[in-house]
Write a structure and sequence with these properties.
The protein is an alpha/beta fold and about 220 residues long. The chain is built from 8 helices and 6 strands. It has a 6-stranded mixed beta sheet, with helices on both faces.
Length: about 220
């Protein structure tokens, strides 16, 4: 008899994954060399599973862990500038119990939300290859299957948006834009958002009000 799948099982398989040699080499190199500001910290240096509420109505999908963020802390978006924006927005929207997250045991609790990534290892130059993306996507498929109460998916950036569209089999292909909405074949709604990268937040391409509007809409739909 096949073992029943679970979020815990998916997470364990993600953490032990070594399917992509280039990503394994890079994440471990970064964890060994470290950034000077984090020289005294022990880096996670492994793939990053999703985390959050198993009964989530909202799933947030990012691109991949940051080399000195999630690859250091062991939790996606935790410990980097993009995460500062994301968790503050989730807190303002009532999905998080605190507005910041600096390490994976800092007391952050998500209610009604689950955070994952399209690719689970930090990629060089933040650019996974198509093959690396395709090896990782089945983990996200399993998470979305197990998160049965999920009604809304927020994709942070076009890469994550395209991954969700592809795995959902949406036709015609929905266009990505900030605040874009698409009804997926399984009945879930996909909302696009600009990624809270420094490139977008420092230039005003993404503002707090724009980001908050995405999560207010997710709350309405969920």
């Amino acid at each position: 008899m096949a073992t029943r799948d679970s979020l815990a099982r998916v997470s364990a398989e993600i953490v032990s994954c070594r399917a992509c040699p280039r990503l394994v080499a890079w994440r471990e190199q970064v964890a060994a060399e470290k950034r000077a500001a984090f020289a005294d910290e022990e880096y996670w240096g492994r793939p990053i599973p999703g985390f959050g509420d198993p009964d989530a109505t909202l799933v947030i999908v990012g691109l991949a862990p940051a080399a000195h963020g999630g690859n250091r802390t062991g939790r996606v978006f935790t410990g980097d500038r993009s995460g500062d924006w994301l968790f503050a927005a989730l807190w303002r929207a009532g999905y998080a119990n605190q507005p910041t997250s600096v390490h994976r045991d800092d007391g952050l609790v998500l209610t009604g939300a689950y955070v994952a990534a399209a690719v689970r290892c930090a990629p060089p130059a933040n650019r996974p290859t198509p093959d690396e993306r395709d090896r990782c996507v089945p983990y996200l498929v399993r998470e979305l299957t197990l998160l049965r109460r999920c009604r809304v998916i927020v994709a942070l950036g076009q890469f994550a948006h395209d991954v969700v569209v592809r795995l959902a089999g949406a036709r015609p292909k929905p266009r990505f834009g900030h605040g874009s909405e698409a009804l997926l074949p399984d009945g879930r709604v996909l909302i696009g958002s600009y990624h809270p990268s420094q490139q977008n937040t420092f230039t005003g391409t993404l503002t707090e009000e724009m980001f908050d509007a995405v999560f207010r809409r997710a709350r309405q739909l969920g």
